[in-house]
Design brief:
Layout: H1 2-27, E1 38-40, H2 41-48, H3 52-60, E2 67-69, E3 72-76, H4 77-93
Antiparallel strand pairs: 1-3, 2-3
Length: 95
Amino acid sequence: MHFLRFFAIILNIQTVLNQILETLQQLEPKAQTNEKVWMDAYEVKSYFNIHRSTLYRWKREKILCPAKVGRKDMYLRSEVEKVIKESRLQSFFNF
């Protein structure tokens, strides 16, 4: 009995959070410029506070596809932001 009530509450919370997420995505300001900001692996790791292995796993799994400039991998900041946002939302909803 208590389990079913708890489960119903969790489902209601998830529904409300999904609605909030949809509203926030609609309100999110669109990029006003077409300027592309490129970052190397070190900048991505320090700016977004992610571990080196996470960045390399995303590269290996083709979640992020960096451009090669010489020997350096260069990432579009907008693509990295998108992947991080999706991964954090996915981990939040997969409780």
